[in-house]
Amino acid sequence: MMSIFLNKPTSPYNSTSYFCKVLYCLATYTDLVKLVTIAVLCYCAVHNRRYDKEHLGDRFQTISIIILVILWIYPILTVILPISANWGTVVYSQTSGLCVLSVSSDHPVQLITFLLYASIFGIGIPMSITLVYSVKMLFFIRKKPTKRITFGHSLEDNKFHRADTQLGKVTLRVAVMDFGLNVPWAIVQSVRVFGVDIRVTILYYLLIFISCLGSVFNPFLFYRKETRDKRQSRCSSPERSKILYTATNRTRIN
After folding, report:
1. Where are the domains of the chain?
2. Fewer beta carbons below 10 Å: N end or C end of the chain?
3. Contacts from 30-33 at CB under 8 Å and sequence distance 24+?
């Protein structure tokens, strides 16, 4: 998702600065890291039931939703802010097929302000959020549960287990699609840093945009799981015993 929006403030096509090209390349790799990290975090949190059963499970899931929503709307803000600040003129480049922000090297203050903004808001803050959240996720993954939880083989448990597995598979597909489409994009931008011009078709831009749409729905996957877990927790013990008893009787009849 980030690559599409970061093309505006950090595009190298109208810049004469080599550093700006390197900055754009780093921003592209930052986008790739964030896309993969978000997808992996979603897969782990959706697929691992332990987070919902421990003391910090609900709070961790709430924090996950907040972080994902922030990373979801963040690129929109990075596009709106430099344009509203009038740092340059927004033009349409016929060669690149993108709407880019023209930063003139004749105005050093404008150029320095733009580079600082792009490096801090385009690379520094997103990578810091991703790093902190990844370390927190690794801590929860390596932490052993305080007590062992066993699940009965009731029809209701099987239903929730199938739903969790399906959500995990969907998130995994999103991660593979994002990674497969954005890696060539990152390689192309890296080669352009050294002055090699590789044309990218509009179709490829469209494919990247479609892949980025998958990351948009990750917060909704969390919300769907949280709602389902609340439904599951409201199921009383007598009802679960009745379900388990019915399932046992059906097994005996068959």
Report:
1. 2-253
2. C
3. 30/2, 30/122, 30/123, 30/126, 30/127, 31/1, 31/2, 31/3, 31/6, 31/182, 32/3, 32/179, 32/182, 32/183, 32/185, 32/186, 33/127, 33/130
For 122-147, what is the mean pLDDT?
Answer: 65
| Triad 36, 114, 30: Cα angle to 5° | 10
Closest CA to 158 of 238, 67, 232, 88: 232
Separation of alpha carbons 172 and 47, rounded Å? 10
Q: What whole-number distance in Å separates Cα of residue 189 and Cα of residue 22? A: 9
Under 8 Å between Cβ of 114 and 82: yes
Q: Please tell me whether the overall predicted TM-score, pTM, comes out greater than 0.70 for this model.
A: no
Retrieve residue 136's tokens. Answer: 């927190």
